[in-house]
Amino acid sequence: MAKINRFIVEYTNAVKRSGITPDTDKPPKAVIRRFVRLFKNVADSRIDAMTDYPLVEVILIAFLAILANASTWEEIAEFGRSKQRWLKKFVRLKNGIPSHDTFRRVFSLINTDTLQTVTVEFLTENISAIRRSLGLPCDGYRHICIDVKEENGTGRKYGSDEVVRNLQTLHVYDATNSICLYSKHIDSKTNEIPVAQDILPKLELKGAIVTFDALHTQKDTVEIISKGKGDYVGGLKGNQSGLLEAVTSYFTDALKKKIKEKGTSYYETIEKAHNKVETRRFYLAPAKFGKQEWSGLKSFLFYEKHTTDLVTGTETLECRYYITSLTDVELVADAVRGHWEILSAAFFYPHLFPRMPEMLDFLHAA
């Protein structure tokens, strides 16, 4: 089952409180106008003399229609016709609503990379302003995750014994707002690194914690995050074998005992679910080496998860190591645990347009 999108739930309630409905005589226009300004940045490759419908109108109608659960060009056009009077509060619609063929033709001409870029820029620059305008909290850290999802079964090639790799997609995911900021198909694991390093400078990293697995624990990556005035939590594995070995040796039993007794850099949670008890222990220690090589490095984290199966009595122990620019153990623990949300999240893809009927159900209300 897909994970409930917390941002959508709170955004839904805020939108309902704001009074923005298709039947409102004078709806607040700030939010929709933000989208209109955004879409004006998408290049229009059509010939002006042969254009009846401004590109911003076509995109806006499609965007709102898909929010209202439209899934075909015909449904998008029907949404526009049924809400034409309301839509005129935001755009002129001089020539009325485009046909479904027009929607299909226009979107076949749009540069999807450009549409993705401007949408990501809009989200990163304006998400806090939108939250404030709707009375939603926007204090504290934002959590951004970098990871890859593998689409199982996509590597099949019927009628052939050829081995085909499953589709791999790199996601840059805003876990705080449950929004996928960026997605790109990749050919191999090593291709993840330059793609992530290319997108990170384009994001608003100030006040954000960026988490990533060991593959992305790269000196250039953490330097980009530090220059952007963000923080990071990165896993350690064999690709940084020297640092991993040093950090592993650093966390002696004596050090872990000292950290636990002191308490300020130790954090523990115990949870019971699905006939299992999981005990998670987090030990945070000052980084006494590696600071010159790793930009912003302040701490090392040792994390262990002890699981007991209440049915079989089986016990398992999982240990991981991390580097981080943070010094608050609870904050690091929340970042480590929150990172795995990217693997089960119900994504809001800004560049594909979101399918979120629960977020803006007012748009297709009778």
Verbal overview:
This protein is α+β, with helices and mostly antiparallel strands. It contains 13 helices and 9 strands. It has helices spanning 6-18, 30-39, 55-67, 73-82, 84-87, 100-109, 112-133, 189-199, 219-227, 241-250, 253-262, 329-339, 341-344; strands spanning 142-151, 167-174, 179-186, 208-212, 231-235, 266-273, 276-286, 299-309, 315-324. The protein has a 9-stranded mixed beta sheet with strand order 3-2-1-4-5-9-8-7-6, sandwiched between helices. A hairpin with a 4-residue loop joins strand 2 (167-174) and strand 3 (179-186). Helix 2 (30-39) crosses helix 3, helix 2 (30-39) packs antiparallel against helix 7 (112-133) and helix 4 crosses helix 6. The protein is elongated and about 75 Å long. It starts with 5 loop residues before the first helix and ends in a 22-residue tail after the last helix. Mean pLDDT is 80; it is low at 1-5 and 346-366.
Helix and strand arrangement:
Elements: H1 6-18, H2 30-39, H3 55-67, H4 73-82, H5 84-87, H6 100-109, H7 112-133, E1 142-151, E2 167-174, E3 179-186, H8 189-199, E4 208-212, H9 219-227, E5 231-235, H10 241-250, H11 253-262, E6 266-273, E7 276-286, E8 299-309, E9 315-324, H12 329-339, H13 341-344
Parallel strand pairs: 1-4, 4-5
Antiparallel strand pairs: 1-2, 2-3, 5-9, 6-7, 7-8, 8-9
Helix pairs in contact: 2-3, 2-7, 3-4, 4-6
